[in-house]
Amino acid sequence: MIHSLNGLRILNTRPKAQAEILTQYLVDAGGIVIECPTIAIKETDSTWVSTLPDLAKIHHAIFISPNAAHFCFKQLKSNHISWPPHINVIAIGQATANALKEHHLLCNDIPPFPNSEHLLTLKSLKHLDHQTVLLFKGKGGRDLIEECLSKRGATVLVQSIYERAMPKIDPLLIQTIWQNDQVDIILLTSEQSIHNLFALFGKDALQWLQSKTFLVISERLAQSASLFGIQKIVKSHPERMINTLFDYSQGLIHDPK
Q1: Confidence (pTM)
Q2: Which of 30, 61, 63, 124 lies 20 to 30 A from 173 at CA?
Q3: How far apart are the first and last CA of the chain?
């Protein structure tokens, strides 16, 4: 059980909707949190619904994030489209599965680690000849899932239903954070969040950012962070971030030298 983060000062860079839930957990656990979303999530227009295939002919549906789940079912409900029970529903992680549950949909498959590589190891996605996969995701990003499933014989239909954008952050807030050295550790959950973080803080804050400890949620993200000159990197499973922060605050995890 987490007793206290001992006043660990944390910069939460998650998008606004996801940040609020995580921030509350961290504050309840004794952390001091500053929210500075480095990505803004915007729903695309609803025209994608007109290109939605006949759901009766879909074998598998993959939801790549909680946003994909919420925006999908928001539009399905608005357009009175029912979700058929025969579809094998796959969530990229537990957070996405929880989002689907809010829409009364249970997942049949969840990978052990919430990323594309582990999702592609699922048994249900190994042999896909003559099967159709519907993928709900955001605009842009990696094409790994589509490419791999197509090579396995699937017909992959992609619905890009939200997009990521640079958020508008008060420059005074950013200046105050780094000039007063208000955080001990920075949470990063995506590659785009790294790019946006450095862009938002600017060149004057470069050395300060590079001196900070960063908590990341994958080896790939750790490698991306190192390209920005970040040397103090702590890796965590996405669903164990609070426990990892607790270990860090207790001195059980040390900054790499």
Answers
A1: 0.82
A2: 30
A3: 29
Integer Cα distance of 67 and 74 in angstroms: 10
- Convert 235-245 to b/e letters by CB count within 10 Å (16 or more is b): ebeeeebbebb
For 92, the 3-state DSSP assignment is: coil
- Do 197 and 178 form a contact (C-beta atoms < 8 A)? no
Strand partners, 109: 90
The H or E element spanning position 185 is strand 185-187
User: What angle do the packed helices 171-179 and 191-201 form, to 10 degrees?
Assistant: 90
pLDDT digits (tens, 9 = 90+) for 78-132: 999 999 999 999 999 998 999 999 999 999 999 988 889 999 999 999 999 999 9
Tokens 């971030």 correspond to: 241
DSSP single-letter state for residue 7:
T
Q: What is the DSSP string of 106-172?
A: --SB--SSSSHHHHTT-GGGT--TT-EEEEEEESSS--HHHHHHHHTT-EEEEEEEEEEE-----HH
Contact 40, 167 (CB under 8 A): yes
Q: What is the 3-state secondary structure (H, E, C) of 34-91?
A: EECCCCEEEECCHHHHHHCCCHHHCCEEEECCHHHHHHHHHHHHHCCCCCCCCCEEEE
CB distance 228 to 216 below 8 Å: no
As a whole number of angstroms, the distance between CA 49 and CA 72 comes to: 9
How many Å apart are CA 59 and CA 130, to the nearest integer?
10
Closest CA to 128 of 160, 98, 157, 94: 157
What domains can be seen in the chain, in order of their start residue?
9-39+169-249 (3.40.50.10090), 42-164 (3.40.50.10090)
